[in-house]
Design goal:
By secondary structure, this protein is an all-alpha fold. The chain has six helices and no strands. Helix 1 runs antiparallel to helix 6 and helix 5 runs antiparallel to helix 6. The longest helix has 47 residues.
């Protein structure tokens, strides 16, 4: 009897872990897609209207309902409150704080590099980096989707 109970618990635990992994991949895929959209909006705003970073972050934060919107909201708040940290530093700090993003190391590395560029160069240079970063995010999102489909 006890071996059956142990087998049942082991099976239930395995199923729970699998479901959790699939949910995390789904959330990662969604976050990568949201970041792609955000970078596209940033690129448009910088190239057509030279929107300042505080206004851009406010636009991207919307109502803060999703983890990505929450990230931009926290960046805007940190930017308003900080007095000596660079934008890249506060961007990186907020990326690491937000566990709801479910991003992998390679996703974070790409976004951290982007944060080091934003606000430091002319709008043309920033737009080029944003376009390249969007393409890289697309590749990461495709890989995440493949993983998600493979796992169920």
């Amino acid at each position: 009897m006890i071996p059956w109970i142990g087998s049942g618990l082991l099976l239930a635990g395995s199923i729970g872990l699998g479901i959790g992994a699939v949910r995390e991949l789904r959330e990662r895929t969604a976050a990568l897609g949201e970041f792609q959209g955000a970078l596209e909006l940033m690129e448009r705003e910088l190239s057509y209207s030279s929107t300042g970073m505080p206004e851009l972050l406010e636009l991207l934060a919307r109502d803060g309902a999703t983890p990505v919107e929450e990230f931009f909201s926290r960046c805007k708040t940190a930017m308003e409150e900080q007095d000596r940290d660079s934008f890249g530093k506060l961007w990186r700090r907020e990326l690491k704080k937000n566990g709801r993003l479910h991003l992998h190391k390679e996703d974070l590395a790409l976004l951290e590099r982007l944060g080091d560029i934003l606000g430091r160069y002319d709008s043309e240079g920033q737009c080029a980096v944003l376009a390249r970063s969007r393409l890289e995010l697309t590749g990461l999102q495709c890989k995440a989707r493949e993983d998600q489909e493979r796992l169920g």
